[in-house]
Design brief:
about 400 residues; 2 domains; 15 helices; about 50% helix
Length: about 400
């Protein structure tokens, strides 16, 4: 949601505002404005259908009006004109975007930064701009004085937002983060018994087959190693297990919260922002800025953070497209690997070749598993029924 807000601000500016200026507007915004915008995005997505909106209220014979305190509050927010009114798909990133970015350890490092600034002066005196960032970060990431605390999905049942996200990553992606708590002790959270434990194997096998197909498109002689049927079947299997966790739009709210939190972290590290300047962490990449900040607060980021930053957005686009069901048969497998579309693109679809190539490279670097070589053949289940979304 955070990166999308920046893009919409640039679009609304019609050439009068740069991406850097839009990012600064967001990073220095009042946390309430950001929370109200998030609520507005949730409303636009209407994941539970029309009932998500305020219910009609009858005020007299023949008169019905729609009312709601939240809707009234949205209009007071600084970004009220920047939210889409109606959207065909969730206007936020896929959960895997948050997973990739959280694996850099950015959340824990920035949380420690907030703690150090709020409890002492070991990091120096923050500038006014950084103090505004601290206010927004405590509201967005740490639930401080949040008018809508439910958006972080925390309560007496789910104590911290990090516990909520780790539970979500496990249920949807079948993966744990690569580290424990800030003290490097095992992280405790409620680990669901029902989870997509086959996601990684299926996903990596799909990427292997896509790489084979990419290689084939450059092959002017020799055998055709592209297996469109297998690509389709793997994509179908992945779509099925991901949608299985989304029945009745289950976990949509948690996904929005997770991608908002990690999107905020990514935006904070994307350039030499006021926080980066105050911490003397200027660098040419988000990964290097995070490394320097981590050194200041005593938490080491993931050694492959650069790869996680590089592929986060591409992972989101890839899985959003996959779940949208554009690949309805082997004849559309080329969406994943074709350099140019051999046929008209399905409405709303885009070629994923560039994203897939980057994911293959960066996923291999991050995990140490070479996706260009098959290690273990993965069997694909029989054709599956389609779940309604």
């Amino acid at each position: 949601m955070i990166q999308q807000l920046v893009q919409r601000l640039v679009g609304l500016g019609a050439g009068t505002i740069t991406t850097e200026e839009a990012a600064a507007q967001v990073l220095l915004a009042d946390p309430m404005d950001l929370v109200l915008h998030m609520e507005q995005i949730w409303q636009a997505a209407a994941p539970w259908g029309p009932s998500t909106a305020a219910p009609p209220v009858t005020t007299g014979p023949g008169t019905v009006k729609t009312t709601g305190i939240r809707e009234s509050l949205w209009k007071l927010g600084a970004f009220s004109d920047s939210a889409p009114r109606v959207v065909p798909a969730p206007p936020w990133d896929h959960l895997i975007y948050a997973f990739a970015l959280e694996n850099t350890r950015a959340y824990q490092i920035l949380r420690k930064v907030v703690k150090e600034f709020r409890t002492g002066e070991s990091l120096g005196i923050p500038s006014v701009s950084t103090q505004r960032w601290l206010d927004a970060t405590e509201g967005l990431l740490l639930n401080a004085s949040n008018m809508f605390p439910a958006w972080l999905s925390t309560s007496e049942v789910r104590r911290t937002s990090e516990q909520v996200r780790r539970n979500l990553y496990w249920r949807v992606l079948g993966m744990d983060l690569a580290f424990g708590d800030e003290d490097n002790k095992p992280f405790t959270y409620d680990k669901a018994s029902v989870a997509n434990s086959t996601f990684v194997k299926l996903f990596e096998e799909l990427l292997f087959e896509i790489w084979q197909a990419m290689t084939n498109t450059r092959n002017t002689s020799g055998a055709n190693v592209a297996d469109n049927d297998r690509i389709y079947r793997l994509a179908e299997q992945l779509t099925f297990i991901l949608r299985a966790r989304r029945q009745n739009q289950l976990l949509a709210r948690e996904e929005l919260a997770a991608t908002t939190v990690l999107g905020w972290a990514e935006l904070t590290l994307s350039t030499n922002t006021p926080l980066v300047l105050d911490l003397r962490a200027q660098a040419t990449s988000a990964a290097d800025r995070l490394r320097i900040i981590g050194e200041r607060v005593g938490i080491s980021p993931h050694s492959r953070s650069a790869s996680f930053f590089a592929m986060a957005s591409d992972l989101s686009l890839f899985l959003r497209t996959l779940e949208a069901g554009f690949v309805t048969g082997p004849q559309f497998a080329w969406l994943f690997y074709a350099e140019t579309a051999p046929a008209p693109l399905p409405a709303g679809a885009t070629l994923l070749t560039g994203s897939a190539r980057r994911i293959i490279t960066e996923w291999s670097a991050a995990t140490g598993r070479d996706l260009k070589q098959r290690v273990l053949d993965v069997r694909v289940a029989p054709q599956l029924p389609v779940l309604t979304r």
